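Quick start: read one record
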Amino acid sequence: MSGAGRRSRLDQVCVDIAPSAHDTEVAFWSGLSGLPVVPSSRFAEYSWLERPAGFPLDVLFQRVGEERPTSAHLDVSSSDADAEREWHESLGAEFVREGPNWLVMRDPGGGIYCLIRREPEAA
């Protein structure tokens, strides 16, 4: 995916969960998948399912700062998220805001996704 010397790939599905539902939701998906939950060492609001060998995507859990229904969005990792942003915008995406290590984008249909400033792993 990408061009002009940069690399990107669909990296993970991020499940956005309200604080009151977080522990129950994470336990549900861990139980359903049979995969253990790995807490983030950098950000307390994140954890993910331990990805089995050969599985192409991570499942990330994000505790959001408000009470709302659980939702999910896609994350794309990129070796150059700023250049990737320009390319996505040329295809019809809109920049929404910047986070500490990601860019929040809106696709042409109105869906939110993130460009992550992280070197894509080989699938």
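The chain has a mean pLDDT of 92.
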